[in-house]
Amino acid sequence: MDCKEAQQFAGDAIDGSLPNGLEEELQAHLDKCKPCRGEVVLEKLSKDMVRQNVKQIPTPRNIRSSILKSLRLEFEQLEPDQESWLASLFPLRVVTPALAAGIVTTLFFLMVSTRVDPLYQMTAHSSSNDIIHQSFANFALLQAGIMLPAMVTTVPESMGDFFRKSDLQFGVDIPKLRNCDWSGGSASECSGVKRAHLFFKIGSESVYVFEVSDDDALYGTQISLPLAAKRALAQSGWYTDPSHPDCNVILWKTEEAVCVAVSTMKKEQLLALLPTR
Amino acid sequence: MTPVVQPVVSRSTKKKHTEFEAEALPHMDVLYNFALRTTGNQDDAHDLLQETYLKAYRFWDKYEKGTNIRAWLFRIMKNSYINRYRKETKEPDKVDYEDIENFYNTIRAESTDPNDLQKQLYGNLLGDEVTKALQGLPDDFRTVVILCDIEGLTYEEIAEFVECPIGTVRSRLHRGRKLLQAELIEYAKQQGMIKDD
Description:
Chain A has 277 residues and is of the alpha+beta class. Chain A is 42% helix and 16% strand. Chain A folds into 2 domains: 3-53, no CATH class; 61-273, no CATH class. Chain B folds into 2 domains: 13-85, RNA polymerase sigma factor, region 2, helix turn helix motif (Rna Polymerase Sigma Factor, Chain: A); 97-190, Winged helix-like DNA-binding domain superfamily/Winged helix DNA-binding domain (Arc Repressor Mutant, subunit A). Chain B has helices at 8-24, 28-39, 42-58, 69-85, 97-110, 114-121, 127-135, 139-150, 155-162, 166-190. Chains A and B meet through α1, α3, α4, α5 and β1 of A and α1, α2, α3, α6 and α7 of B.
């Protein structure tokens, strides 16, 4: 190997891209050629300088938000009849009970990253196995930006695919929230109980919905529900927890799941987001 | 209860949308960083990123499933950048390599032992200076340096991204780094970090 070749492959050596068999040749040349050794040092210096000083930074929240929004607008243009076909297919009364909750913080949604693992490792399920308690604990983790959705989308319904692939073994109820900017989802399993986590962003407000199968919620031993909630869900399919006077938690039941929405929104705001009941 | 049923009329559109989001959104950070390093400011990076995603969305049918999505998005970004920002400046591949080579060799001849240089520069340079020097590189060089040294892509990936043979990637990388060194040495001299011969 001559100096020209050695300098040509100096970068490969530094970047770990050296073609097979050239390592020894290059080394042999460098051992006897001081200028080429200097060349390698300089090339590495340049690479290190860049790596040390220019770090990858996450996309700023406002930019991520704006791009998701523009994609949604684009989608709506392609799909002008979105509202009407939904309305015609599902009389509002039957539409999956939409739920809303809001938090002032926009942290978690703006930090959304599809690269983040689902919540399998999350310590969302703390001391109590009460479903309401767990929902609040998860909500707090979301507010703190610790819990992040595994996927995001600007079309809430498209979460259906995600949850179908998640092997949850119950039909996840995906509320169609009015004016929802974008949403996200995660699936997790803890103590043998499969759980769905849904996130919705509506303007500056956020919504979290926690879902487990009705078998687990109503009859299981790993997760519990207050007796009053069980009764109300059996009677009307709905329950608002009186220990939260602001009405920042609402439970409802579908054929396969029990769902809990958590919010700091006032009752009126929350109900306004729901389809007519 | 199953998730909302999708009517026949819009199933394909919806499927397309879902696919796009699942495939394209995870690469936002890489693209944003590239846009930021290329344009040099957040506003332009925002515009470029947004344009890239919207174009990718509109041309999603053209994306060949199973191929490198990141490379595809990157090419859209690169073309958008050329159309948007480089209309009035020089075309790609029109960099005068000889000038660079000469410039670099002059610098190198003046400079001290590379090992000393390393000691002197290491830890003394500010991030801003390196960013600025990177910013000052001709586009073709900067692109490969960013992709290799910041994003950590392999030569093969970079070749696919910039649609050039690996040999071209190698030489651009080598020359880009040389230019960077020259800039940084010049700066270090001005700051008195190293002796000006």
